[in-house]
Amino acid sequence: MAAKLGLPLFTVACHDDLTAADLIGRHLISDGATYWNDGPMTRAVREGGICYLDEVVEARKDTTVVIHPTGRPPPRSADRPDRRSAARTG
């Protein structure tokens, strides 16, 4: 599907040792400097690709928690009752 759409594909083989940092990314140290290294989910979001999580049911619960927010569309201010209406009339 990714190839047909011309999108990058990031495949992750899920298992019980998979951590949230394995999916999202982590800070690493090299040559005395700290830098951020994106995980496959972050890369898929940044590059507009697809992140395929193979055997996601095998991942730990504390890891799958980071997956759920990525499947939801961002809230729109008109959908949120705590915001003043973004769509003004008149």
Topology (elements, then pairings):
Layout lengths: L1 H4 L3 E5 L6 H5 E6 L2 E6 L1 H8 L2 E5 L6 H4 L26
Largest sheet, in brief, is: 2 strands, parallel
Largest sheet, spatial ordering of strands: 1-4
Please work out how many helical segments DSSP would assign.
4
Q: In total, how many beta strands? A: 4
Q: Briefly note the structural class of the backbone.
A: alpha+beta
Give structural notes:
The chain starts with a helix and ends in a 26-residue tail after the last helix. It has one domain (2-74). The model has no long low-confidence stretch (mean pLDDT 83). By secondary structure, it is of the alpha+beta class. Strand 2 and strand 3 (33-38) form a beta hairpin. The strands form two sheets. The protein has a two-stranded parallel ribbon with strand order 1-4. It has a two-stranded antiparallel ribbon with strand order 2-3. The chain has four helices and four strands; from the N terminus they run αβαββαβα.
Core attributes:
4 helices; two-stranded antiparallel sheet; globular; 90 residues; alpha+beta; two-stranded parallel sheet; single chain
Brief write-up:
The chain contains 4 helices and 4 strands. The chain is of the alpha+beta class and about 90 residues long. The protein has one domain.
